[in-house]
Amino acid sequence: MCIRDSKIIEHALDQPLDAVVLVSFGAGNAPIHNAAFMHIIERIVKRDVLVANTTQCLAGGINMHTYENGRVLADAGVISTRDMTIEAILCKLHYLFSHHSSEASSLLPKNMRGELS
């Protein structure tokens, strides 16, 4: 991500948001050594925006404790969605924010209706 791109992303994320879904690499890796990227993540987490991490891979899921990158994201407040599909994440976020908004961060990674294996 270059600085020009990060400014566009920062502006988009300055809008009123409840959650952001980060689509990362493999088991939940993202460019943690990119200062602009981490600044954006830390900034939105500090605003109490839920940041959910999912994988771009068609099979498998997120394990944010396998590699340093995932651990750094978890320490920054990013939530693992394990093996939920993007569609399930979006549906679950809509449900959680309409019925359990204060518990959304703790309920997102928990299996509620078979969305996680």
Q: Main traits of this protein?
A:
117 residues; alpha/beta; 3-stranded parallel beta sheet
Q: Could you tell me the mean pLDDT?
A: 89
Helix content bin: 40-55%
Spans of at least 5 consecutive residues with low confidence: none
Biggest pleated sheet = 3 strands, parallel
Count of strand segments: 3
Shape: globular
Give the H and E element order: HEHEHEHH
Distance between the termini: 33 Å
Given helix and strand content, the structural type is alpha/beta
- Whole-number radius of gyration? 14 Å
Strand content: 5-15%
Strands side by side in the biggest sheet: 1-2-3
Number of helical elements: 5
Description:
The protein is α/β, with parallel strands linked by helices. Helices cover 42% and strands 12% of the residues. The chain is built from five helices and three strands, in the order H-E-H-E-H-E-H-H. Strands 1-2-3 form a three-stranded parallel beta sheet, with helices on both faces. Helix 2 links the parallel strand 1 and strand 2 (50-55). Helix 1 packs parallel to helix 2. The longest helix is centred in the last third of the chain and has 14 residues, at 86-99. The termini are far apart. The model has no long low-confidence stretch (mean pLDDT 89).
